[in-house]
Amino acid sequence: MTAQTVSARPLRRARGIAAGGPRILPLLFFAALTIALFFAMIYLRIALDRNAFELDLLEHRIEVAESTQLDLRLEIAGLQNPLRITNEAKRIGLEHPRERVALVVTGLADSADPILPEVPVQALEGQQP
Amino acid sequence: MVRRRIWNRGDLRLLIVGLVFALAWAGIGYRLFNLQGSRAVALATVGFDQRISEQPIPAVRGTVYDRDGVELAMTIDGWNVVVDPMMLDDPAATALVLAPFADVGLAELTTEFVEAQSKGRRYAEVAMRVDSAHRDAIRAAIRSYNDANDPDIVGVFYREQPLRVYPTGDIAAQVIGLTAYDDGSGIEGLERTFNSELQGRPGKLIVEHDPSGRVIPQGQVLLEPATPGSDIVTTIDREIQFTVEQGLRKAIQKTNAIGGSIVVMDPETGAILAMASWPSLDLNDRSQVSPEVLRNRAVADVYEPGSTLKALTVAAAIDQGIVTKDTPIDTPKSVTVGDYEYEDIGRNPAWMSVADVVKRSSNVGTIEIERRLGKELHYDYLTAFGLGAPAGLDLAGERHGQLNPVSRWNETSGSSIAIGYAVGTTPLQMAAVYSAIANDGVYTEPYLVSEVIHPDGTRITAKPRTRRVISVETAVIMREILGRVVSAEDGTGRRARMTDFTAGGKTGSTNKFDVDLQRYTDETMASFIGMAPLNDPKIVIAVVLDTPTGSLEDGADLANGGASAAPVFAEVAQIVLHQLGIAPDKL
């Protein structure tokens, strides 16, 4: 067997790979980013749920307030019931006046332009203290 | 010789495995096609139905306001309290706690729970349509029991059920009307007439739930909110309505009448300020409900208006220039028309002026005036004043009265109608007739609802139609004539006088017709329709009493409108005018 001479070719060097092995920093960065995104999503989800709960709570409060408002309107209408007022007036001894007193305002019946007494109008003119 | 093997063992195994896989995939493919293709729609529907349920959201019914914005009818949160008997550990103890709040007594409630449990039923009613305070009281009682006892009471549920309430109870009951107990739709009065506006549109909540029926959080797929009903603003003034109802109640007690009605109308606008009927009811108490008390007599009772219609006959003749208020009219004791003899009650002079004919309510004189007017013109004025047609309120139960066309009149029709017989009217129609006289001859269609307010805030405002029916001059003369009916000592309406205001009006007393006997009876419909203050009327009031009996201290027969209805007008009108802030014109 004769020896065959082989021309020596230089070995290719992988680009970007450190001499000591593959670079770990980008991998770590990617892993950290993934983990951060994971927790961020969890946080956002929790925040979303918390807001949903708060919205539910607010809606419930609105419903209760609306219900209370209706009850109060009903109570006001009931308190204004003329029958209740009449009975209450009778109970405390109120009665219609028996004598009628006619107040005749001088000048009102004689003239188309009624004579009005002078009144201080400072408040209307913005001169109040 | 070596046999050549076409398949080696490995190839065969491969083939078998391949076939098995192919068959498996074919099976899966078939199943996939079956589920996702041919049966896809049906299965999707079944699945949807299994996990989706629809919960109706009731629409809040609109509010009915009086003209000052005070609630006459409104909807509040209400609840149905129910129990799942199968969840009860101790039905007797549960019944004991719930009985004070239940619609039935302790024994009945206990029996209901025990029977329901034995039959496996999962629903039993405790208290239906209760307000929030009632529900809270039940909750508190259960909480209190659970704190002190073991096991707890569980299985009590509260289902939302809007509650229709009437804060003023019996005020304007027949006008407002009622809603049905089951579906809450209007069945009487304004509740019925304006049901489509008031009821709104129910919404729905479509929710996703698990197989055990629990709602999946955030699984809600569709919310279609309910649209609340529109609010309506009536022309009713609650204070005036109360005054009128009190006046009517007193009149009924005083005259022993079996019923009655009063209408108060603003003649300028046509607005109905009050409309009262007796007998009445408290709308919050369903046990009082009956057709008799729900009937709004002011629009549903057709009666012969009697002498109150004479004003229309005379107004028509004056408006046509056929007579003046001073034209002398022969008034013998009686007059025969066809085969019927009409006569006057009491003694009258041999002749009277037109004004005196009205003042003394002479049948004979009015018939003579009608004869001069002629039946065609008479009929034209009757229809122009709105008789024989609905007054236009569109209120449930409203009737349009009865007025035959002139082609169907017989020999006595014109004479009978001239004095208020052979024609059917409602108290509201008669109030509208007098409103036209009070409003300088312009007939204004009465109305009861001034505004409809939609949930988005838009408003629809009533625009009543008007038409001139008599001239201003005729209206002024008629007011003067009607004023004498009240102011003159021999006027039939003298008991309608007020201390603070001038008034004009006309009395009416008609014998009631017995349909079974086909003849008139001694029972009467007594009425007074008037206006005040006379020079510029702000109100027209129609008072109608059904079958008043007895007599006044001076011997006046209460069967006559002048004795029974006129004093009611005076009492009510004086208070109402003060309530409206009208300055007295008689001091």
Average of pLDDT of chain B: 90
Indicate the overall shape of chain B: elongated
Kindly report how far apart the N and C termini of chain B lie.
150 Å
Oligomer: heterodimer
Radius of gyration of chain A: 47 Å
Query: Structural class per helix/strand content of chain B?
Result: alpha+beta
Side by side, the strands of the main sheet of chain B go 7-3-2-10-18-19
How would you state the average pLDDT of chain A, rounded? 76
CATH architecture annotation of the largest domain in chain B: 3-Layer(aba) Sandwich
| CATH class categorisation of the largest domain in chain B | Alpha Beta
Largest interface: A-B, 15 and 24 residues
What is the CATH superfamily classification of the largest domain in chain B?
DD-peptidase/beta-lactamase superfamily
CA(first)-CA(last) distance of chain A: 127 Å
- Which residues of chain B sit in consecutive blocks of at least 5 with pLDDT less than 50? none
Q: Quick one: overall form of chain A?
A: rod-shaped
Secondary-structure-based class of chain A equals mainly alpha
Order of helices and strands of chain A: HH
State the share of residues found in helices of chain A, binned by percent: 40-55%
Largest sheet of chain A: none
Report the C-alpha radius of gyration of chain B, rounded. 36 Å
